[in-house]
Amino acid sequence: MIELPAPYASPAQPSESPALTWSGRRLYRHGVPHQILSGALHYFRVHPDLWRDRIRRLADLGLNTVDTYIAWNFHQPREDKEPRFDGWRDVERFIRTAGEEGLDVIVRPGPYICAEWSNGGLPSWLTGRDVAVRSSDPAFTGPAGRWFDELVPRLAALQAARGGPIVAVQVENEFGSFGDDHAYLRWNRDALAARGITELLFTADGPTELMLDGGTLPGTLTAVTLGSKPDAARRLLASRRPDEPFVVAEFWNGWFDHWGERHHVRGVDSAVRTLEGIVADGGSVSLYMAHGGTNFGLWAGANQADGRLQPTVTSYDSDAPVAEDGTLTAKFHAMRKVFGASGPLRVAERPPVLPPARVPLVPRAGLLAGLRAVPAPTSSGPRPASFERLGLDAGMVLHTAHPRVPAGEHRLILADVRDRALVFAGGTFLGVADADRPELTVRGTGAVVRLEVLVESLGRVNYGPGVGGHKGLLGPVLIDRRMVQGWDSTPIALQEWTDADLTRATTPATHPASAPDPDPDPDPASDSTPGGFAVATLHVETPADTFLALPGSGRGLVWVNGFLLGRHWEIGPQVTLYCPAPLLRAGENTVTVLELERSGDVLELRDRPELGPAEEYVEEFA
User: Fold this and answer.
1) Please, which residues have CB within 8 angstroms of residue 549's CB and are 6 or more apart in sequence?
2) Is the CB of residue 242 less than 8 Å from the CB of residue 235?
3) CA-to-CA separations, 317 to 283, 292, 610, in angstroms, rounded
4) Given 199, 250, 324, 456, which residue is catalytic?
5) pTM, full prediction
6) CA dist., res. 377 & res. 375, Å (int)
7) Cα–Cα distance for residue pair 617/224, rounded to 1 Å
8) Is 174 labeled as catalytic in the residue annotation?
9) Whether residue 452 lies in the annotated active site
10) What is the pLDDT of residues 88-118, one digit of tens each?
11) What gap in Å lies between CA 620 and CA 622, rounded to an integer?
């Protein structure tokens, strides 16, 4: 068993030397043998009013450290605006809170972080250019250096050497699974040091020769990331770095989920056995995740497999010891024993929840009418404008063209749509186009037709060579073999919508009259569109957590009191959306639903999460 002070307390006095050092395969903290017992918790996935509660739960787990990524695009979504470090983005407050709770902090500033986060944390305004991301290309390191100019001095001021809780900083992130530009890795390490980082620097990569060859640097501690086989990883590291301690920067004790797949879980016994193997003989570990939290808004990333997009769900529960809503799981209690923690818990086993309820979901506006009611600049050109050309990170784009369609049925082909499009002709819904189904049928009469294509991004790729990929209608739109030219493209920045924008979208009286239609629908009976906007009103006595479900609805987005909670989709696995108590208020609360496929008539408040049918998953390296 690992003996820890109770509670663990970091020193408040500054020191000239780094807090963490190593020698003879052992890690030391101010000269005393030490194990990092850490858990990943991302400030951007937890409501700020809950940061202290979640950090305290990690301390109760028996951890002595918390680690967090820093998401560049979360702080600076637009190039023409300075990075923000206030409110939800106040990472300094998060770090100080961890220190106040007696925990050390490990920071992983990227600039690339993966994390199943949109674009791996890189801003789309940067990756939308002709730039070699994660490389020594000055077109990449220049903006990354300017970001570090803003970020790193804030971190440096919170290092242990200056009386703060930061004891280690990661160099890039699992670079060895991406590339082998060691000049870029050295730039990253030097950029941190030049801006004031004096605490322990380390790299982290999968435990294979290929990944360690690409992602490690001489003189910088090498950590590994893994879900299994810690003994093999320990042997590999010992053969390459015989003097360094065994540090697992990510132990995947659970896993994330994609839409359309099953909910990934990992059995308690399996996770605990691997954890015991990691911490044996002084090994250090960080649980990934200790508390996963939520991909609020449209920040969820995506993976690619065989050219197909695998978008990540809104929940980032990750089957972690501390569940998405803060509940202490069986895995929490089993791991607490491994960590040797004792004494009473300072936190409740589960935060309070609202009682179950069913609330009517009242239709307010049609889909296209509601979207058009929110003002946005329109770009015109011979081809559809991509998200990047429009300066749009996430959300939708409404493309409109007016081709003449000969009489009869014709093939309508969207050659490269990223990621999903609803297609309308003359107000008639034709269907959904995506990578698997790029072709629809359009019927013409020889007249001009108003062709509208509503393209939705399902999440930017966060891992692998697909990072930085563009979104929108990237290829031509064809009627048979002829390209459709002359497009108006209107960005719909849903993640930036204000309360006033939601009011415009959901108040039919505010909708502007449509411009004269050069191609009136020849079939008035088919002028309806799928989905639309609907609103539910909740009366809450005392705010508490709840879990929202939309039985009968197909796919769309949910706002709570103007805050974009996330995406729902009937294909699952996730059924309920976690709504933390700080998003609610005593009295009346408004839930707004943008439905894209099929509108239900009820919103359910449930007292338990439903994340879908589960399957055991353990990530392994060959």
Assistant:
1) 575, 576, 577, 603, 604, 606, 610
2) no
3) 26, 5, 11
4) 250
5) 0.94
6) 7
7) 20
8) yes
9) no
10) 999 999 999 999 999 999 999 999 999 999 9
11) 6
